[in-house]
Amino acid sequence: MITPFPSSGYFGGTAADYLEIPANGTLKSLEIMIRDTDPEFLNLRGIEFYNGSEKLNIDKKNVNVSQSSFRDSDQTRDPYTLLTKKGCHSALQQNPSWKISLPAGINITSIRLYNRTDGWGIRSRDIICTLEFNEGRKQIHEVNDPENVISVLANLISEIESPAEHQVNDNGTPFTVNISSILKHLEHHNKVLTREESNALAALIPTNKGSVWGDDEFKLAARILVDQKRRLRDASTGIRSFAFALNTRSKLDRLQLEMDGITSNLRQDQLRISRHGIYDSGLLRKNISAHLASLRRAMLLLQDHGYMSVLCYGTLLGAVREQKFIFHDDDVDIAVVLNDGVANNVQKSMNNIAEIFKSDGYGLNTLSDKHHNIHVRDTSNGGVLDIFPVQIVGDEAFLHMEKMNWRSVSAQWFENIKLVELHDQLFPAPGNAESLLAERYGETWKVPDPYYEWTWPLANK
Questions:
Q1: Which stretch of 200-204, 228-232, 341-345, 394-398 has the lowest confidence by average pLDDT?
Q2: Are 232 and 138 in a shared domain?
């Protein structure tokens, strides 16, 4: 299939697919603007400045940042949030922009720009970055640069095929960009695609709303995502950038099938698509004894500090339904029962629990601003535990339910704690676990559904 570049200018918002802009010199200012004849949003996740491999810390007291407009729902209206990866979001306008001025200047070699981590990132492909250096020198970088895509792909093709097969024109670039041909060459090479190569290949795949993929697009997206994981095993992938095209269960199934074929052909561990991204298939089941030990250790630590904990959510679901970790699950879920009866003490209690784990040598991955749960990492095996509160207030138990909605269920469900079996070991669980699971996952909770509460809308087909 010969294709134009439907997503020319593509870049993502993760460590696997950000945009890197070469910028050698003493930077005095940077303006990011969407150049388009129609009104558009400027909506980015973050920006970083580098000098070699060193990320530079930008003190907001030493710079001036401005933004052309703000959307009405943006409560902070703080243009500095782009510097902390909390994003910027303009109003709908023609040529929206964000600008940073650095009066003292900073010595840099590159800039990293992080997009939205969903399908709406396609808005950013027409960004133009204007950099001003000492002595008034200017550099303009256009994100949507088809010639750069062709150049990157030409180098990729020449690297993975024999010189006799490599046909170029007088400018040294391929006459055509043929997805089928690229896939054929990649199939027989163990090469791990670089970030720049992955982004150039992603430019060949439609990502707008209403995008339709054929066989080649599914195969190419699968190879891009597999190689993102091969390159950065512990990082997120850019799968959410393809959300508009992957809008049904059957399409996700098809992508999974293609990923399975690629990992098998490359003799790599199988990867599994989940609502959290892409992870090693059956991550918890790969080292059951270590994760069970980590779970027991965490529960005993909480007990030593006066907290009762029980299995919850996906871990409870697996224990009650299968007596095993769910095949596609990637972390262990624990609920801590808080009985002080004061609803607004939840965050204070969770802060205390976070300090307990931190003091015991656990890594504290996340302390959410929006929710009450915390993520802790067992440094002995790398396992992640997601720890949630259950706040008992009278006859009600408040906890995170569907889509992290904080609401109440019957407090009786957490009385008379019982033991449930998980991989031939016993762990504490809510006394009425079946009722809790039905309330949380619906009456069909006994039937496995890998796409439950998916992070983007899916049609049921």
A1: 341-345
A2: no
Residue percentage of the chain with pLDDT more than 70 = 93
Clarify whether residues 70 and 135 are in a common domain.
yes
> Which residue, of 93, 109, 143, is where some domain finishes?
143
Give the CA angle between residues 228, 123, 182 to the nearest 5°: 40
Per-residue pLDDT at 252: 96
Contact (Cβ atoms closer than 8 angstroms) between residue 203 and residue 187:
no
**Cβ atoms of 421 and 319 closer than 8 Å:** yes
Closest CA to 25 of 47, 46, 48, 51: 51
Contact 225, 237 (CB under 8 A): yes
Indicate the number of domains in the chain.
Answer: 3
Rounded to whole angstroms, the Cα distance separating 185 from 154 reads 13
For 188, the token pair is 């027989």
| Over residues 401-407, mean pLDDT | 91
Rounded Cα–Cα distance for residues 162 and 361 (Å): 52
Tokens of 399: 């906890």
Nearest to 318 by CA among 454, 453, 445, 452: 445
Do residues 85 and 155 make contact, with C-beta atoms less than 8 angstroms apart?
Answer: no
Q: Which domain holds residue 256?
A: 147-280
Does one domain contain both 122 and 164?
no
Largest CA distance in the chain: 79
Question: How far lies 85's CA from each of 44, 46, 82, 286, in Å?
Answer: 9, 4, 5, 33
Task: Name the helix (H) or strand (E) containing 88.
Answer: strand 88-89
Residue 200, in any domain of the structure: yes
User: pLDDT-based confidence at 43, cuts 50/70/90?
Assistant: very high
What's the rounded Cα separation, in Å, for the pair 82 and 65? 10
In angstroms and rounded to an integer, the radius of gyration of the C-alpha atoms of the chain is: 25
Cβ–Cβ under 8 Å, residues 425 and 290: no
Q: How many CB atoms lie within 10 A of CB 265?
A: 13
